Amino acid sequence: MVAALTATLYVWTISPLMAAAIGKLFLTGKVQLDRKVAVTGPVAVNPAYVEALPGIPMKALSAFYDNSKADVRFVSGDALSGTSVGEDGYLGWFDNQVTLLHEGTEREILGWAKPFRFNQFSSSRAYFSWLCPKKQYAMDTNFHGGPRAFVVSDVYGKVLPMDIFPVYLAKACLAGDIDKMEKFGIYEVLPEDLALCEFVDPSKNEIQDMIQKGINLMIKEMA
């Protein structure tokens, strides 16, 4: 009887920022983790770079947003793949950006049925705003609709540089079908790789969350 041998493969990665911190540690014997953090977003009163440490509270950046407003979403990271932490939250260890967005809770009469919406961005040119290609938009967190069935189209493929089938991969992750997840490229992606797919998704699905759950399931089954 031959016992099956299993091995666990660990992959370690490091960012340029941490590589510089390690180099500084060897040269000076001091741990220096401060970094330049970009304060960005439509709600930022004065977008700028600030010197900060990982873990600083969002309230420490109060000079860069209107404290009187209660409808601000504080994102540690970028708008597409960052984490909403709230005003009482903190900057993530691996993040070097803070994004301040308006919480889009407003509802519109007729909604998508109004084509004359020059102030709304549409990746599919559903509104006449595409006639103003140089127009800048103050993006918010409004979904402009609720979750619905997957719309099978090439809308994902237009923003995904990888040669995979993102719709079928997301469906496989949602169903927990590991065989199909492997077939459609689960080994080739990270959740943030599909951030733009989530942004343009007409079905309003949380694609990154689906991919992350699929990866977690795959790792669990292979352990």
**Portion in beta strands:** 5-15%
Tell me, what's the shape?
Answer: flat
**Largest sheet, order of strands side by side?**
2-1-5-3-4
**What is the helix tally?**
5
Q: What low-confidence regions span 5 or more consecutive residues with pLDDT below 50?
A: none
Distance between the termini: 22 Å
Instruction: Give the radius of gyration.
Output: 21 Å
| Total beta strand runs | 5
Question: N-to-C SSE series?
Answer: HEEEEEHHHH
Outline the biggest β-sheet: 5 strands, mixed
Helix content: 10-25%
Q: Overall mean pLDDT score?
A: 84
SSE-based structural type: alpha+beta
Structural notes for this entry:
The chain has helices spanning 16-28, 166-175, 178-183, 195-200, 207-222; strands spanning 35-40, 48-52, 72-76, 83-84, 97-102. The two termini are 22 Å apart. By secondary structure, it is an alpha+beta fold. Strands 2-1-5-3-4 form a five-stranded mixed sheet, with no helix packed on it. It has five helices and five strands. Helix content is 23%, strand content 11%.
Topology:
Layout: H1 16-28, E1 35-40, E2 48-52, E3 72-76, E4 83-84, E5 97-102, H2 166-175, H3 178-183, H4 195-200, H5 207-222
Parallel strand pairs: 1-5
Antiparallel strand pairs: 1-2, 3-4, 3-5
Helix pairs in contact: 2-5
Briefly summarize what is shown.
The protein has 223 residues and is an alpha+beta fold. The chain has helices at residues 16-28, 166-175, 178-183, 195-200, 207-222, and strands spanning 35-40, 48-52, 72-76, 83-84, 97-102. The chain is built from five helices and five strands; from the N terminus they run αβββββαααα.
